[in-house]
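quick one before i forget lol
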Amino acid sequence: MDNRFNEVFLVFDPLDKEFSPGSRIIDSFSNCFLFYPFKKSSNKTFKTQLHLLNDLMISSSLDLSHALVVTDTSNIATSIAHIHICDKTVTKTIHHAVNVLTTEAKLFPIRCGINQATSIPGISKIIVITDLLYTAQRIFDSSLYLHQIHIVSILNKLRRFFINNNSIKFWECPSWCDWSLYKAIDTETKQFHPQLLYPCKSSWNFSKKNECDNILSSWKMTFQASDLKGHHFLNLYGKYNNHFEPIYVKGSSWLKYFGHSNSLCVRATRAIVNHAPIGKYRLRFFP
């Protein structure tokens, strides 16, 4: 590992029981967690969703065994979680990070809120309010992907919490809906301006993305400015007549449309590059 990755090492055990079929938390406690997306198909539906959130806030404020966790993350990766019990804010967690991905920043306040709520005596039901339900759903996704070092920590807490027949629910609340509790934490998040201490460390995922972006930028500059692509390379265009650029996620820019057929993929590749001397072909015949 070199200094480009800030000497940050990924610590992950692929044999962890949370990712082993049969012993995963979704296998043992599938009825202990629920998700409620925010649906806005009409003004009537929007008002109904707000009423549901208000009813949720009122019902949780009347029960000492309920913990209402509201999370938010700003554009500068300031993560805040408020924990409410009986209509009172009992705990606030504030964490600021730089050089992290959006999903990491969104996941961290959920992790902090769950850690705090599960440690409060007498809590049997946790309600998490977040503006990005997709991030919360990744907690129970047992497939291999980034951020699993956070996921394992959350699942270990929830496993001990679920043993006593406790439960957790995740509700989505977009920031634009101006719901009272979320509006308060969103305002606090945007007003938080910490003094950064340098040098700043980078997360593993951010470092990998930054390195990949630099490689792609270098490749595009070299490829467009040189004659390596030949004189008949077929430039592909997308919306608004923008050039298709190489990407390394979601099946690439165009290959995903031809990948289902080997013969079609070969013909499409030949048509695009027009036998331009690139890759191994160039190294062999044009050293």
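fyi The first helix runs from residue 25 to 28.
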